[in-house]
Design goal:
3-stranded antiparallel sheet; about 15% strand; two-stranded antiparallel ribbon; disordered N terminus; single chain; binds zinc ion; globular
Length: about 325
């Protein structure tokens, strides 16, 4: 505001500025309108971040997933390509016969790093589901996009990890067919969620069968829930965190949170948090209310608060 009045004084000083004024004023108005609109609309990234912060503590989000530099094609058919991140043995070249000391057994030059998807990429589900919008539909186009993704975030972890136990998933193998199947399933889940919780026009356009809006909503929610539960059951597990302070032996930290066997599991945990977190109660808005807001807050912002009051008053007047 200060800036505006200053600008106004400066501009009224000289006629020479008139021309400039005619350019700047609409720009400022446009900027202010854009800012106002931005205040209302929360992106899905922000929603997912807030949901994660509401639902779990940062210290429980450390479960890691490996990223690799290179993937080799192990099988190629008309519709599918299977790739694998092979271990690059530091002693493999020209040093035959050299024996391993214990630590070398675990060294893999192909492994880039281990990151914590739940902590470092809170909106990975959104990023993954949005690949569906850019699906080129061809095997080679899809392959390029998949390779870029798995180098950035790691493989989805759909293949069993051999003999290490039935639940464990390989963090090295990926199948093009299954990858894109999962992309479209995630996109469908996002669409169902938005249709079930957003404005009724989204539900009407969603293609979910049902005679009434209530029937459509019920069906959308049950398909979504089945998808999320199916994935959580196979790819995630509850994890108890219990730590004792070394100096005095008192309990420092105790809590029940989640771990995952696969990156897919981590992403569906994010979706589950998005669904269960405290939501705005204004009609047609499904934004998450952040945990920093008052515990009795029922809406995500002032506009929604007004809107909710208006709808309540109107309903009461009937
Ligand atoms: Zn809202």
């Amino acid at each position: 505001m200060l800036y505006c009045s200053y600008l106004h004084r400066r501009l009224s000083l000289s006629l020479a500025y008139l021309h400039l004024h005619s350019i700047v004023a609409p720009c400022i108005l446009k900027f202010m309108a854009l800012k106002a609109r931005k205040g209302k609309k929360m992106t899905e990234t922000e929603n997912f971040k807030r949901a994660r912060d509401n639902e779990t503590d940062d210290r429980y989000l450390g479960t890691g997933w490996v990223r690799f530099h290179h993937f080799d094609v192990v099988e190629k058919t008309e519709h599918n390509v299977r790739v694998e991140a092979r271990k690059h043995d530091p002693l493999a070249d020209g040093k035959k016969g050299q024996s391993y000391s214990g630590e070398w057994l675990f060294v893999d030059y192909n492994a880039r790093d281990v990151y914590a998807p739940l902590r470092d990429e809170p909106d990975l589900f959104v990023k993954f589901a949005s690949l569906a919008d850019e699906d080129p539909g061809t095997r080679d186009g899809r392959y390029d996009m998949m390779l870029e993704w798995i180098k950035k975030y790691g493989v989805l972890g759909l293949m069993p990890a051999g003999n290490f136990g039935p639940d464990l998933r390989s963090d090295r193998e990926e199948s093009l067919f299954l990858f894109w199947y999962e992309v479209h399933r995630a996109a469908r889940c996002m669409a169902l969620y938005k249709a079930a919780t957003g404005p009724s026009r989204l539900l009407k356009r969603s293609g979910v069968p049902g005679k009434t809006l209530a029937e459509k909503r019920q069906l959308a929610i049950s398909i979504l829930t089945d998808n999320v539960n199916h994935t959580l059951k196979r790819h995630c597990y509850p994890k108890l965190y219990y730590q004792v302070r070394k100096d005095n032996g008192e309990t420092a930290d105790v809590g029940l949170s989640w771990g995952f066997h696969s990156l897919l599991g981590a992403m569906y945990l994010q979706m589950a948090w998005r669904i269960t977190s405290r939501r705005c109660e204004a009609p047609g808005c499904n934004n998450i209310i952040g945990f920093h807001k008052r515990s009795d807050a029922e809406t995500c912002n002032k506009t929604c608060k007004e809107r909710r009051r208006y709808h309540r008053n109107r309903a009461a007047a009937k």
